[in-house]
Structure formats: C-alpha cells, structure tokens
C-alpha cells in the first residue's frame, strides 16, 4: 500500500514533482488551512490521483481516436484496392496516392465545389441566424415562445429523418413544394425533378442544412443579446442612432467574438457534413454533388481505392485542422476579452 | 398611427412565417405518416389528415428486422452513453477539482477531440475493425460512439462538478468521509440533473450516427435505425406514407428529449462551444 502511490507519482507526473516541488496552488493552499483529518491525505497519492482519474479517458481516446487517425495516415501511403484488401496485402507506394490525388482534376473540382458550398451555406446560416436571433430578442413573450418552438423542432429533428422528409417535400410528382410553386403560378415547376440536376440538388441540401443550423445560431445570438444591458441601446437611441446604427455600432462590436467563433464552428460543421449530402442523393446526379468527405468515401469505399480515399481524407483533415486552429485562436482571444 | 401599427405588427407576422418555415417539415412528416394512401398521392395535397389511419405505422413496424434494429440502436446508444459517463465522471472530476501539470493541455485536447472529423475517418476505422474481424458487430459501434460523445460528456460534467461548492465536499471530509466517500455521498447526488442532461445529449448523438454504421455493418440484422431509414425508401418503392411513419418513429424520442431540454441545450452548447 505504501509502495503503490510512489509508483503512481513517478509515472506521468514524476519528473515534474522532483524539480523544486509543486507550487502551492490555490487548491493546496486552501487545503493546508484545513484541519488535521483533511491534511492527512495530502500525499504522493494526491499528486498522482488526477492522472489516475484521467487514465481511462486518455486510454480510450488514444485507442479509438488516435489509432484511426494514425491508421488513416498509414493507409494513405499504401496501394490498397479490392485485391490487396481481400488478400490482406500491405503494399507501400510512397506518396503515389497524394501525387495521384493532387494531379487529379476531379479532386480540385470537388475541392472548389466544397469551398463554394461551405461559403454559401455558412453565409446563409449566419445572416439568417443573426436575423432570427435579433427577432427573438424583439418579440413579445408569446410570439417568442412560438418561434422558439419552431426552432427547437427543426433543431431536434434527427438528420437522417430530416433528409428523408426533404426528399418527400421535394418529390417530383407528389411533393408539396412542386405543388405550391405550381399553385403560385410557376407552372413549369409542377413536375420538376429536383434531384436530377447539380444546382437543384445543392439547393435542397443547402436548404436542409440552413434549416437545421439556423436554430443554433439564433438561440446563441439571442442568449448573447440578453447579456447586453438595455442602457446601451437607450444611450445609442438618445444619441439619435437608428436601428441599423444601433446594430452596427453597439451590438456588432460587443458580439464580434461571438460571431467569429460561431462562424468558424459552422464552417467546420458544414465542411465536414456527410450525412445530409450523401443520404439525400448519394452525391448524385452523376457524382456532381460530392463534397470532399463524400468524395473520399465514394473513392475509397464505393470504388474500392482505399489508399486513395485515405489520402483524400488526410488532405480533408489538414484543411479542417487549419480551420480549427483559426477557431481556437478566436476562442482564446475571446477568453482574454471576457 | 397607421405606421406605428405596422411597425408593431411586422415582427409578429415574420415570427409566424418563420414558425411555419421551421415547423412545417416536421408537421408534414407526422401528418403524412397518418394519411391514407389516397391522400398522399392526391393531386392537391391534403394539409390536415381528417381520415387519419395507423396503416403506415403498421407497415413500418412490420418491416423486416424492425424490432431487431430498434434493439440494436438502443443497445449501441445506451451502451455508449453509460460507458462514456463512467469514464467521463472520473476525468471531469480531476479537471474540475484538481490542479496538476498538463491540465490546460488536457482541456485543449478535449476541445479538439470534440471536433474530431469522424465522418472523414471512416475508411481507417473500417480497416481497423475489419482487421479485428469485427465487422457486423455491435461492439465496435458502441466503443466508437462512446469516444464520439466522450469529449462533450467530459466538458459538460466538468462544468456541473465545478458548480457544486467545494465547501460541501470539504465539510464532509472534515466530518470524517474519505475523498471517495465525499464524492459519492455529496457531489454525486447533486450531479443527478447534470448527468441526466449530459447523457441525453450523448443519446442523441449516438442515436443519429450514420456514416460509421453505413460502412461497418452491412448485414441487415446488424444495422441501426438511421441506416435502415435511409434504405427504407428504396425498399418500399415510393411508399411515402410508410417512410414518413418510419421517420416519425425514429424522430420521436429525440424530439421529446429536446423539448424537455431546450433551456439547458442552449446554455450547455453555448458554454461548450463558444465560451471555451
């Protein structure tokens, strides 16, 4: 019993403990003021305890997140197609997959498409979400509750269920959207096949994603708006500012970090969106609505070029990491300001 | 006078229109599910199904493997949530209550892991699972879902634990409780609401997961409901009534959870996502 705690300390935190001893942090200082029984337990075990408590979480994360990440990189340097898969062959082929991907016209077309898709979606989500958030702040209690209910319904819909519902809404023959457009006088839309063209499919996907994402932005903006003291608005109005001036000179500067952080989050989410894009039309028609995650999946799994698919996915992850680091920079900045 | 009436009315009008925009797809799903076939393929859509029928639900429920898949989904989801709660509880206690070297690094890792691009990693996950001969098994799904919800669980539980006054724990220890006892008897009961809402969010994530099960479990009786739902339409031709009934059945648990949790949802997600 006496030996065990010693070993624990030497494990993860051992080296650090030797060099000059632990600094008296707030936690310890407070403990020290305590009475006998509490102090008694302040031992080597105490110093090792946090690491011990973190061990299970660290272990499963390394095993189930770290390993696939590493495996992904390893696979991207292998020639791995149906034959190698079945025979369990490992054929290293250096950077061939990357060379093949980066010189492939399709890859760049899909990348450009993904960037445009992300930009359009995020812009729509942020503008629409901000407007809905502002509206929530302005509404009376009853109407706010009504709108919140609608937003929660959309937000809570499971993505897969929402996807099938949108397929039904936009159905060619019996879809309510085509019927409405026809009834409103746009008769050429009566039997329009939304999933037959690239842009019309993207339109449905975008609508689905925006519909699904706006509630998050709107609720968060509304929550942030309620923290702005009413005096600020009043002062601005007294100085003769109109609605737009109040927004751009009072609300926007205060919520700038919020907008930046949310925008980056949405960029990351839309960029890696798989379910909506894949489930609604499997990247079709004619592979024209594949974005990078779907492209990696179809190349890797669908066409059984696993190595190639892994290379595409590594490249996608690199782009995501760049986006995430920008997000963290924004969040860190925001922390300083708060 | 007229102008002021207008400026008072327009936000409400817009709110109603927005409500319709956001709620209509959900309404349309549920109402289609109750319509008889004649109403679904009517030339003029039937907006209120007066002659409601449960026939579509019947079709959905009696589809091949339906109850097996319900059981699969529940097993995988509950397994993942319970495992991640246990693991997260100890980790978040350390993060909330203790000061140690590397704590900041762990917190950043948790945030990073929360954004892990799982959707893009499915090929590697497929290879790993296949090399272990565990395709078409619920075990890898459960384990991966557990890790998917783990960062969020750690992050929110850490907040809930930090909110329990340290003095409560200390006074219990002064009264002779050990640290473990103090945690189990004082902190843990106070965490109940936090555990509840955290696990429900984990539930939603795991319940909805699609890309991984799509690649790992091809065998019909080893799938989960999301995968079944996307294939449902193909399997049933254009039986939109049954498809919508299936979607409704799939969505109901999640909608209920969300309606109950709405307030916490906003706070929790804001704290986790934006405030850092």
The helix count of chain B comes to: 12
Alpha carbon gap, first and last residue of chain A:
46 Å
Strand content of chain B: under 5%
Within CATH, the superfamily of chain A carries the name: MetI-like
CATH class of chain A: Mainly Alpha
Tally of DSSP β-strands of chain A: 0
Biggest interface: A-B, 107 and 102 residues
Tell me the CATH architecture of chain A: Orthogonal Bundle
Inertia-based shape of chain A: globular
Domain ABC transmembrane type-1 (chain A): 111-327
Membrane topology (chain A): Multi-pass membrane protein
Transmembrane segments (chain A): 49-70, 115-136, 145-169, 202-225, 246-271, 306-328
GO cellular component, one term (chain A): plasma membrane
How does this structure look, described?
The complex is a heterodimer of chains A (338) and B (276). By secondary structure, chain A is mainly α. Chain A contains 17 helices and no strands. Chain A has a single domain, classed as MetI-like fold, CATH 1.10.3720.10. In chain A, α1 crosses α5 (44-75) and α10 (159-169) runs parallel beside α15. The longest helix of chain A has 34 residues, at 105-138. In chain A, 75% of the residues lie in helices and 0% in strands. Chain A has helices at residues 3-10, 14-18, 26-33, 36-40, 44-75, 82-86, 96-102, 105-138, 141-156, 159-169, 176-183, 198-225, 230-238, 243-271, 275-281, 292-302, 306-337. In chain B, α4 packs across α9 (179-208) and α8 packs antiparallel against α9. Helix content of chain B is 78%, strand content 0%. Chain B has 2 domains: 2-53, no CATH class; 67-273, MetI-like fold (Orthogonal Bundle). With 276 residues, chain B is mainly α. The radius of gyration of chain B is 24 Å and the shape is globular. Chain B has helices at residues 2-34, 37-40, 55-61, 66-97, 103-114, 122-131, 138-163, 166-174, 179-208, 211-216, 225-235, 240-273.
Offer a few descriptive terms.
heterodimer, A: 338 residues, mainly alpha, MetI-like fold, globular, disordered N terminus, B: 276 residues, 12 helices, 78% helix, disordered C terminus
């Amino acid at each position: 019993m006496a030996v065990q705690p010693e070993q624990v300390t030497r494990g993860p935190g051992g080296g650090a403990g030797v060099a000059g001893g632990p600094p008296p942090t707030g936690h310890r200082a407070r403990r020290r003021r305590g009475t006998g029984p509490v102090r008694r337990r302040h031992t080597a075990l105490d110093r090792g305890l946090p690491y011990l408590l973190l061990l299970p979480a660290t272990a499963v994360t390394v095993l189930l997140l770290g390993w696939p990440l590493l495996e992904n990189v390893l696979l991207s340097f292998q020639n791995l197609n149906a034959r190698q898969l079945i025979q369990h062959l490992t054929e290293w082929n250096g950077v061939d997959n990357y060379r093949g991907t980066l010189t492939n016209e399709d890859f760049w077309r899909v990348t450009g498409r993904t960037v445009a898709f992300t930009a359009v979606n995020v812009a729509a989500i942020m503008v629409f979400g901000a407007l809905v958030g502002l509206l929530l702040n302005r509404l009376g209690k009853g109407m706010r509750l009504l709108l919140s209910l609608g937003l929660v319904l959309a937000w809570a819909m499971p993505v897969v269920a929402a996807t099938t519902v949108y397929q039904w809404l936009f159905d060619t023959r019996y879809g309510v959207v085509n019927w409405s457009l026809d009834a409103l006088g746009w008769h050429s839309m009566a039997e329009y096949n939304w999933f037959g063209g690239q842009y019309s499919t993207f339109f449905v996907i975008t609508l689905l994603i925006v519909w699904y994402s706006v509630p998050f932005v709107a609720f968060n903006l509304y929550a942030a708006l309620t923290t702005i003291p009413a005096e600020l608005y009043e002062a601005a109005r007294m100085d003769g500012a109109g609605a737009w001036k109040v927004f751009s000179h009072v609300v926007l500067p205060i919520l700038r970090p919020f907008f930046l952080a949310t925008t980056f989050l949405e960029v990351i989410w839309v960029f890696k969106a798989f379910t909506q894009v894949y489930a609604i039309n499997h990247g079709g028609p004619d592979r024209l609505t594949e974005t990078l995650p779907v492209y990696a999946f179809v190349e890797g799994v669908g066409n059984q070029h696993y190595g190639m698919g892994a290379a595409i996915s590594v490249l996608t992850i690199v782009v995501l990491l760049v986006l995430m680091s920008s997000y963290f920079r924004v969040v860190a900045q925001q922390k300083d300001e708060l | 006078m007229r102008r002021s009436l207008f400026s008072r009315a327009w936000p409400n009008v817009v709110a109603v229109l927005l409500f319709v925009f956001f709620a209509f797809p959900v309404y349309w799903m549920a109402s289609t599910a109750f319509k008889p076939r004649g109403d679904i393929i009517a030339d003029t859509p039937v907006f209120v199904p007066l002659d409601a029928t449960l026939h579509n639900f019947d079709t959905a429920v009696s589809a091949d493997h339906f109850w097996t898949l319900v059981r699969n989904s529940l097993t995988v989801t509950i397994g993942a949530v319970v495992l991640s709660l246990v693991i997260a509880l100890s980790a978040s206690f350390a993060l909330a209550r203790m000061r140690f070297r590397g704590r900041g690094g762990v917190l950043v890792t948790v945030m990073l892991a929360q954004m892990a691009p799982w959707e893009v990693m499915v090929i590697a996950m497929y290879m790993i699972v296949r090399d272990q001969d565990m395709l078409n098994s619920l075990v890898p799904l459960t384990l991966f879902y557990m890790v998917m919800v783990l960062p969020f669980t750690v992050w929110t539980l850490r907040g809930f634990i930090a909110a329990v006054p340290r003095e409560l724990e200390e006074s219990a220890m002064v009264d002779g409780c050990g640290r473990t006892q103090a945690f189990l008897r004082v902190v843990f009961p106070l965490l109940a609401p936090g555990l509840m809402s955290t696990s429900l969010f984990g539930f939603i994530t795991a319940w909805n997961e699609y890309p991984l099960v799509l690649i790992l479990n091809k065998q019909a009786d080893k799938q989960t409901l999301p995968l079944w739902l996307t294939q449902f339409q193909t399997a049933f031709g254009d039986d939109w009534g049954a498809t919508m009934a299936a979607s409704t059945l799939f969505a109901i648990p999640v909608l209920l959870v969300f309606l109950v949790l709405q307030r916490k949802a906003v706070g929790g997600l804001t704290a986790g996502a934006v405030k850092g």
